[in-house]
Amino acid sequence: MRKKVSPPNRDARKESAIQKEILTFLSLCGFFVFRVNTTGVYDPVRKVFRRLGGFNMKGVADIIGVLPNGQFLAVEVKTATGRQSLEQRIFEKNVKANHGIYILARSIDDVRWIANEFNQAA
Predict the structure, then answer these.
(1) How far apart are the C-alpha atoms of 95 and 91, rounded to whole Å?
(2) Which of 33, 59, 80, 121 has the highest CB neighbour count under 10 A?
């Protein structure tokens, strides 16, 4: 007797999978976007993540880009239950204060509007 396998729960997906899906979608739409890794480098001797240098800013969004009109784009990706840190909320405030677009995305559906806004299609 075969064990019945349920479809994957989209809400249980990892943040990295959602990031990849969003990056792929925005890239296919022709947007200039890239992933920002702020985790640091793992030091196996000390068993900790080392910071990448003195110029890294805490709270920077996961995906950064420039829209066709030159506007700055920042996409912070969270799981269904993920929450922004204080630093991420400060970064969001700074992006919006400087006329950039900041999106808190839990799925690809949260960024689809940007392609429609700029008539870009995947």
Answers:
(1) 6
(2) 33
35 strand-pairing partners: 63
Is 10 contained in some domain? no
Q: Is 120's pLDDT higher than 90?
A: no
Domain count, the chain: 1
Share of residues in the chain with pLDDT > 70 (%)? 82
Encoding tokens for residue 52?
A: 């990448």
Give the residue ranges of DSSP H helices in the chain. 15-28, 86-97, 112-117
**Model pLDDT for residues 41-93, shown as the tens digit of each residue:** 788 888 887 766 666 778 999 999 999 999 999 999 999 999 999 999 999 99
Buried b (16+ CB within 10 A) or exposed e, 106-118: bbeebbbebbeee
Q: What is the mean pLDDT of residues 111-121?
A: 86
Q: Domain residues for 109?
A: 15-117
Q: How far apart are the first and last CA of the chain?
A: 42
